[in-house]
Amino acid sequence: MAEMPCIGILDSGVGGLGVLGEALRLFSGARFYYFADREHAPYGSMVENELKRCVLSGLEMFEKRGVCAAALACNTATAVCAEEMRRRFAFPVIGTEPAVRPAVRAGCKNVLVLVTPRTRDTARFRALLARERGNFTVFAPPRLASAIEAYAAGGPPPTLSDHLPAGRFDGVVLGCTHYALLGEEISRFYSAPVFDGNGGTARRLYACAGRGAAGAFRADTGRDGSPRVGMDDHQKGAVTTSERFPSLCELSTKNEIIFLYSTKNDSKICYEQTFFKQMMAKNAAIGRIGEKFF
Ligand code: DGL
Prior knowledge:
Layout: E1 6-11, H1 17-26, E2 31-36, H2 48-64, E3 69-72, H3 75-88, E4 93-94, H4 100-105, E5 110-115, H5 117-120, H6 123-130, E6 135-139, H7 144-152, H8 160-163, E7 171-175, H9 177-180, H10 183-190, E8 194-195, H11 198-209, E9 229-231, H12 241-244, E10 256-261, H13 268-281
Helix pairs in contact: 1-11, 2-3
Residues 11-12, 15, 41-44, 74-76, 116, 119, 145, 176-178 line the site of D-glutamic acid.
């Protein structure tokens, strides 16, 4: 039987779960490694060289596990070092970019672009904006990604007016994958449509990783036939989805997801819970279990 294709997804924390969710809708029979570099988060206020080192070591971890492609599910990491990482690794490295073009194509003229401080200061981001025609207001909330991370770990929901500028916009670009987790709330806050790059990143990942192999993707299941969502294989006692989340098994992804953690292992389970709740919010059939992302 064909080897299970392995895909790496990297973010500083929960933001990349949105990309993972989109990818699961496209792939079948793939193994996803999700690496949340919580130990070094937030990436959005990190100096460039340090951030590059973090991304490099995350991708090396994926390389050791034999991934056929990896996504930087992080606008900041993409803006700072996507090109450099592409030169260093043999597998395709897919980036996530602020969805400015989709906002413009949707007819938005007065657009708020929310990014992290580090993304805002990159040449790549400036070039992205320069390619589009529109009236763009760029704003980089210094603490919103961390507040969303804390919310995912069980803290209070962020008060958006503490983090976001007032104003009237006809579209809002969520140029940080963390912000996309609060997409509905941000859309309500501005009474405007929001745009994120998650779907585009997942499609590109599928096009690169799945090329020629999509037909060979196969579902791999746990002992009881449910898709496996476990811990990394260096950790003992990986459990199947049904063992850990008995009520959620109807969320069949046909893929395997393995969460990798940096040394701060304090909230391993929070990632899995965040992820499932996020998936539930998008799936009407099981939406009754959870209404919000977290
Ligand atoms: N989620 C990341 C992004 O898309 C960064 C969040 C952080 O600051 O750690 O930019």
